[in-house]
């Protein structure tokens, strides 16, 4: 099978339209399916970048489905936290007949798509992104957090699998932040109750777990992997090798996996130094055709920095000012002081700054509940749209 995720159709990269690069990826995907005699394609969520995607993105998705169906290769897809599950799932029953299996309903987590090869049946369980506050009642869990709802969904998977013929192999598609995964700057925060990650052990009992959400391709265990996004969506992905997993399950469910590289529209480069150094350094010639993020360390902001940078690096997209200063310099930027800090930490620091003492445990819980409520409300509005 070919494991991919996080297409984010309709998303741009620092105002650069990525639709052409996304179409090139779809071409590459279809070619890989044909060239490697793939038996099934799995897409682990975030097909679109937002709940109401632009028409051009919908048309590209439609063409991708038609091309995969024309190859006669079954495709299993789930919705991610960026998708509108209801919109993506419209017509799922009809599309099923063409071999395109959309799994967007949390209630169907324990109902697999059954595919077969020479060794017998493989059960594909689609676990769409499970927003804890919205699915808590469906799974009858005592607390609305990621581990509780995902654990309940996997209990349904294991119960169904136990009732099937011995030797039935199993694949789970899930969209989640699993402990041990390395995030980037381009994933939307899914923290609930101060916790975003779930342990990899929550997926015990199945042969392969095709994960989506994190944009870097990574192996958590031999059986639990992220494919990552096929394209970069932030400069924090400059070191990523964008790829898909070509996964083979043998008769016993043993996993063999190979990475297939995705086409790169343009390399990324993160440059740092004074403006004059960046303009003069011969070592930077290799980045002149890259998309560039430049961090200027000049103690005083230079004149016309973007115009001067683009004369050498015409694809400079992001300019950051981070003067080299002592840590106690009062001019140290607010953004730099907050770098790497979460909403909860910033709020707690603000309380400490205002009254001279940080929040106690009860107040921390109030802040955490407030952030969770806002996050849940935002998700509910996306679903309603």
From TrEMBL:
<comment type="similarity">
    <text>Belongs to the SbcD family.</text>
</comment>
<dbReference type="InterPro" id="IPR004843">
    <property type="entry name" value="Calcineurin-like_PHP"/>
</dbReference>
<keyword id="KW-0378">Hydrolase</keyword>
<keyword id="KW-0269">Exonuclease</keyword>
<dbReference type="GO" id="GO:0008408">
    <property type="term" value="F:3'-5' exonuclease activity"/>
</dbReference>
<dbReference type="InterPro" id="IPR029052">
    <property type="entry name" value="Metallo-depent_PP-like"/>
</dbReference>
<dbReference type="InterPro" id="IPR050535">
    <property type="entry name" value="DNA_Repair-Maintenance_Comp"/>
</dbReference>
<keyword id="KW-0255">Endonuclease</keyword>
<feature type="domain" description="Calcineurin-like phosphoesterase">
    <location>
        <begin position="2"/>
        <end position="216"/>
    </location>
</feature>
<comment type="function">
    <text>SbcCD cleaves DNA hairpin structures. These structures can inhibit DNA replication and are intermediates in certain DNA recombination reactions. The complex acts as a 3'-&gt;5' double strand exonuclease that can open hairpins. It also has a 5' single-strand endonuclease activity.</text>
</comment>
<keyword id="KW-0540">Nuclease</keyword>
<dbReference type="GO" id="GO:0006310">
    <property type="term" value="P:DNA recombination"/>
</dbReference>
<keyword id="KW-0233">DNA recombination</keyword>
<comment type="subunit">
    <text>Heterodimer of SbcC and SbcD.</text>
</comment>
<dbReference type="InterPro" id="IPR041796">
    <property type="entry name" value="Mre11_N"/>
</dbReference>
<dbReference type="InterPro" id="IPR004593">
    <property type="entry name" value="SbcD"/>
</dbReference>
<dbReference type="InterPro" id="IPR026843">
    <property type="entry name" value="SbcD_C"/>
</dbReference>
<dbReference type="Pfam" id="PF12320">
    <property type="entry name" value="SbcD_C"/>
</dbReference>
<dbReference type="Pfam" id="PF00149">
    <property type="entry name" value="Metallophos"/>
</dbReference>
<keyword id="KW-0235">DNA replication</keyword>
<protein>
    <recommendedName>
        <fullName>Nuclease SbcCD subunit D</fullName>
    </recommendedName>
</protein>
<feature type="domain" description="Nuclease SbcCD subunit D C-terminal">
    <location>
        <begin position="265"/>
        <end position="353"/>
    </location>
</feature>
<dbReference type="GO" id="GO:0004519">
    <property type="term" value="F:endonuclease activity"/>
</dbReference>
<dbReference type="GO" id="GO:0006260">
    <property type="term" value="P:DNA replication"/>
</dbReference>
């Amino acid at each position: 099978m070919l494991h991919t995720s996080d297409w984010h159709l309709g998303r741009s990269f620092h105002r650069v339209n990525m639709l052409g690069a996304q179409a090139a990826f779809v071409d590459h995907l279809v070619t890989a399916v044909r060239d490697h005699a793939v038996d099934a394609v799995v897409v682990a969520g975030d097909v679109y970048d937002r709940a109401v995607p632009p028409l051009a993105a919908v048309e590209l998705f439609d063409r991708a489905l038609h091309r995969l169906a024309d190859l006669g290769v079954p495709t299993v897809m789930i919705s991610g936290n960026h998708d509108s599950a209801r919109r993506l799932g419209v017509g799922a029953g009809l599309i099923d007949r063409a071999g395109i299996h959309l799994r967007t309903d949390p209630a169907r987590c324990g109902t697999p798509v059954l595919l077969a090869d020479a060794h017998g049946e493989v059960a594909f369980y689609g676990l769409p992104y499970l927003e804890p506050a919205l699915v808590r009642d469906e799974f009858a869990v005592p607390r609305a957090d990621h581990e509780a709802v995902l654990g309940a969904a996997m209990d349904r998977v294991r119960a169904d699998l136990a009732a099937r013929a011995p030797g039935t192999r199993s694949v789970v598609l899930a969209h989640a932040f699993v402990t041990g995964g390395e995030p980037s700057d381009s994933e939307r925060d899914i923290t609930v109750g101060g916790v975003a990650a779930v342990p990899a052990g929550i997926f015990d009992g199945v042969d392969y777990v095709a994960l989506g959400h994190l944009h870097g391709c990574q192996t958590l265990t031999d059986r639990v992997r992220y494919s990552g996004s096929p394209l970069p969506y932030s400069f924090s992905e400059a070191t990523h090798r964008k790829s898909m997993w070509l996964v083979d399950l043998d008769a016993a469910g043993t996993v063999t996996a190979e990475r297939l590289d995705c086409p790169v529209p343009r390399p990324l480069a993160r440059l740092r130094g004074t403006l004059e150094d960046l303009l003069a350094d011969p070592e930077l010639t290799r980045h002149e055709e890259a998309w560039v993020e430049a961090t200027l360390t000049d103690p005083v902001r230079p004149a016309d920095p973007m115009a001067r940078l683009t004369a050498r690096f015409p694809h400079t997209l992001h300019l950051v000012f981070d003067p080299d200063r002592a840590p106690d310099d009062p001019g140290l930027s607010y953004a730099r002081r907050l770098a790497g800090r979460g909403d909860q930490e910033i709020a707690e620091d603000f309380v400490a700054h205002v009254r001279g003492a940080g929040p106690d445990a009860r107040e921390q819980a109030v802040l955490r509940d407030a952030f969770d409520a806002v996050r849940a409300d935002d998700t509910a509005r996306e679903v309603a749209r």
